[in-house]
Amino acid sequence: MKIVTICLLLLISRAADAAAISIGRVEVEVPDPPGYAAVTPEMEALYKLQRQFVAPSNVEFVAYIAEIDIPAALRGQIPELDRRFSVQTAASLVDASVSKADFAEFKNIIKTNHEEILARTKAAVDEAMGKINANITEEYDVDLALSVAQHAPLPVHAETERSLAYSSYVKYDMKDETGNSVPFVALVSATYIHVRGRILFLYSIAGEADISWSRNISRQWAAAIIKANPSDFQTMVREYLPTTIASIEWDSVGAKAIAGAIFALLIGLIIWLVRRGITG
I need a labelling partner for 182 at 20 to 30 A (CA). Which of 8, 11, 204, 271 fits? Predict the structure, then answer.
C-alpha cells in the first residue's frame, strides 16, 4: 500500500511542474496553472476522452485538471471537470513564425471583427454537434438534439503587447429523454499569447458564476508562460522583421481560436449529462 501511495505521489509531482511543448521546431515551457496539473497518458480514460473535444482545425498540446482530481484520474475515473485548462493553437500556425506586427494584426481582428468571425465558426460547430448527437444516440439510445443556443462574448478585459484576453458565455440547448428542454451554460476565458514567435490559445473553462476566478487565474497563468519563454536573439530578430506570412488569413485564425473555445467546453457538458443520468 505504501509503495502504491509513493508511486501515486511521484506521478502527481511530475504532473504538477511544467509542460515542455514543441510548436513546430520551437520549444515552449508551459508552467502549470496554480493548483492544476497536466493530464497524462497514465490517466487513460480522461486522456482519451479529452482528445475528442478539440476543434478539428486546432492542435492541443496539453490540458490541465485540478491536482485534487489526479488520483481519481489515475484510477481510470472521469472527474467532474467543472474547471479545466487547455493549451492549443491553429494547425496552420504550428510551423509559422509570427512577428509582433502579425500578432498585433491578429489582436485587432479579434477585437473589431468578433461577431463576424463568430458567424464563420457556425458551420463547423453545427457539423461537430451533429456528429456528437449521432455518437450519443448510438451509445446511449437517446436523441439530445444538442446545439449551441447562444455564444455571448464579453469585451476584452486584458491586453498587453504579447497577450489578449476576453471571456465568453456559451449556452447549450438539448432535450432529455422525455423531450424536455435542458439548458446548460458554461464560461470560457480565452487568452491569446505571443511567445518565441508562436501564438498559443489558452482556454480557462469554468462554471457560469466563475468569471472572476477564471479571469484572475488566466491572467496569472498567461503572465507566467510569457515570463518563462523570453525570446532569444534569433527569435527576437524574427519577431521584429516584417511579416513573411502572406498566405495566412488572420480572420480564419480568429475563427479557429473561437471554435477551439466552444469545442473545449463540450467535454464538461458531456460529463455533466452523464452525471445527471441524461445520457444513461
Answer: 204
How many angstroms separate the CA atoms of 9 and 222, rounded?
27
Beta bridge partners of 63: 86
Q: What is the DSSP string of 104-169?
A: HHHHHHHHHSHHHHHHHTHHHHHHHHHHHHHHHHHHHS-----EEEEEEEPPP-EEETTEEEEEEE
Contact 222, 33 (CB under 8 A): no
Q: For residue 30, count CB atoms less than 10 angstroms from its CB and return exposed for 0-12, middle for 13-18, buried for 19 or more.
A: buried
What is the Cα–Cα distance from 81 to 77, expressed in whole angstroms? 11
Tell me the residue length of the chain: 280
Q: Name which of 186, 265, 159, 218 is nearest 34 in CA terms.
A: 218
Give the number of C-alpha atoms closer than 13 A to the C-alpha of residue 219, restricted to the C-beta side. 13
Average pLDDT over the chain reads 85
Q: What is the pLDDT of residues 71-99, one digit of tens each?
A: 999 999 988 888 999 999 999 999 988 99
What global pTM score does this model have? 0.87
In the block, which residue shows the cell 505521489? Answer: 9
Q: Which of 116-130, 204-218, 263-277 has the highest mean pLDDT?
A: 204-218
Query: Please, which pLDDT band fits residue 278 given cuts at 50, 70 and 90?
Result: low
The cell for 33 is: 496553472
